[in-house]
Write a structure and sequence with these properties.
This protein is an alpha/beta fold. 37% of the residues lie in helices and 20% in strands.
Length: 279
C-alpha cells in the first residue's frame, strides 16, 4: 500500500500516467508527464515499493553524491500532485517504469492510490513506433475504456487486439474499477526511434490540454520539436535510402483524416489560441 504525505486538498483531481519501457517509444509519453511535473511544480506525494515489482538486474539503482550526501536512487513509480493555474481540476501525475513482475498487484496498488486521492478520470499516455513520416503531424490515437467515457470525450472505444504493455493493463484495470479511462498513443517514426522525440511529446501534451480544457505552458518545446524535424531532414538529405523511404511514406494516403484538417481540430486550435491570449 502506498503511503502519502503532503497531499493537501485536491480539486476534482484528474490522473495523467505514463510508464517508461515498451509503451514509451523515444521516451515521448514519459517526457510529456515529466513536462507536466516541471511546468506545474508538482510535488511527490507517494511511491510504489520497488522491491515487489522490479528486477534490479534489469533496472539497476543509481548512486550519486559524495561523503555523507551519497545516496542510492531506486527505480520505481512515483505519484505527484500539481495545481494548474487554469481549469477547475488538480492533476495526479504517475510516472515510472513498466514493472518486471506482478503486474496485477502493481495496478491494484495504483488504483487504490487513485481512489484514495479522489481521482475519477485517468488519462494514460503511450508512444509506439510506426510507419509515419517525420514531416507530417504526429498521429495521436485516442480511445476510451467504455462506451460512456467514449461518448463523454467524443472518442472511440478501444478495438485493439494483440500484445499489450503496462499502459494497456493499467487502463483496463481502471475501467474495471469504475474509473473513466482514456488513452492517447503517439505514433513515432520508426526510422528515428532514438529518444527524445519532442514533436511526439508536444502532440501528446496538446491532446491532454484539449481533453482537460487547461492551458499547458509549453516553454521551448515547440522550438525543440522544430529543431528535431530539421535534424531528421538533414539526416534524410544525407542518406538516399532514407530520403526515398520518407518520400514513399509521404505519398501514402492517410488511413484517417489528417489531425489538423478536421473541424474539431480546427476548433480546438482556435480555443487554444484564445486561452493563450488570456481571453
Amino acid at each position: 500500500m502506498i503511503e502519502f504525505s503532503d497531499v493537501g486538498q485536491l480539486r476534482s483531481p484528474i490522473v495523467v500516467a505514463a510508464f517508461e519501457g515498451w509503451n514509451d517509444a523515444a521516451d515521448a509519453s514519459s517526457a510529456a508527464v515529466e513536462h507536466l511535473e516541471s511546468t506545474f511544480d508538482a510535488r511527490v506525494v507517494g511511491a510504489i515499493d520497488p522491491d515487489d515489482y522490479y528486477d534490479f538486474q534489469v533496472n539497476r539503482p543509481t548512486v550519486s553524491g559524495a561523503g555523507d550526501a551519497r545516496k542510492i536512487a531506486w527505480p520505481t513509480t512515483r505519484l505527484s500532485v500539481a495545481s494548474p493555474t487554469s481549469g477547475d481540476s488538480d492533476l495526479i501525475l504517475i510516472r515510472g517504469l513498466e514493472p518486471n513482475m506482478r503486474w496485477r498487484s502493481f495496478t491494484d496498488e495504483l488504483i487504490e492510490a487513485v481512489h484514495a486521492l479522489g481521482g475519477e478520470t485517468v488519462v494514460s499516455l503511450g508512444a509506439l513506433l510506426a510507419d509515419s513520416p517525420h514531416t507530417r503531424p504526429v498521429p495521436i490515437n485516442g480511445t476510451a475504456g467504455d462506451a460512456g467515457t467514449a461518448a463523454r470525450f467524443r472518442l472511440d472505444a478501444s478495438k485493439y487486439e494483440g500484445p499489450t504493455g503496462i499502459v494497456g493493463v493499467f487502463a483496463d484495470a481502471c475501467t474495471r474499477a469504475g474509473l473513466a479511462s482514456v488513452s492517447f498513443w503517439a505514433a513515432v517514426p520508426h526510422y528515428v526511434a532514438n529518444p527524445p522525440c519532442p514533436k511526439a511529446t508536444l502532440a501528446l501534451l496538446r491532446r491532454v490540454e484539449d481533453l482537460l480544457d487547461i492551458e499547458i505552458p509549453l516553454d521551448d518545446l515547440p522550438e525543440r520539436a522544430r529543431a528535431w524535424e530539421r535534424q531528421v531532414d538533414e539526416l534524410a538529405a544525407g542518406d538516399t535510402e532514407v530520403a526515398e523511404y520518407v518520400r514513399a511514406l509521404e505519398s501514402r494516403e492517410p488511413e484517417t483524416e489528417l489531425p489538423e484538417a478536421s473541424g474539431d481540430a480546427i476548433a480546438r486550435e482556435f480555443e487554444r489560441y484564445l486561452r493563450r491570449r488570456g481571453r
